[in-house]
Amino acid sequence: MMMMILISVVFSLLLSNTFLNVLCPGCCLRFSQRRINPGLIVSYYITDPRCPKTAIILVTKMSRKICVDPSSSWVRNTMKLKDANSP
């Protein structure tokens, strides 16, 4: 009985967001629902392929990192704008 409880606890930890963040600290678990003004964005990057969700991380002038959905049209437009303006 004690072994079943231990297995359940370990399994729960493996599935938890906290454990996922330890394994993949650069992964996004949720996407921001707010549109970000492209003028506030200095760069962006794509999350590691090992992450459970593919995401774009926008980096603001204040060095804030915001996870956004790569399939959103405003995100794709922001990425094109940044690519066009980069040296």
UniProtKB/TrEMBL annotation:
Keyword Disulfide bond: yes
GO MF, one annotated term: chemokine activity
Chain ranges of the Chemokine interleukin-8-like domain: 21-82
Family annotation (InterPro entries): Chemokine_b/g/d, Chemokine_CC_CS, Chemokine_IL8-like_dom, Interleukin_8-like_sf
A matching Pfam family: IL8
GO process annotations (BP): immune response
Name of this protein: C-C motif chemokine
Taxonomic source organism: Oreochromis aureus (Israeli tilapia)
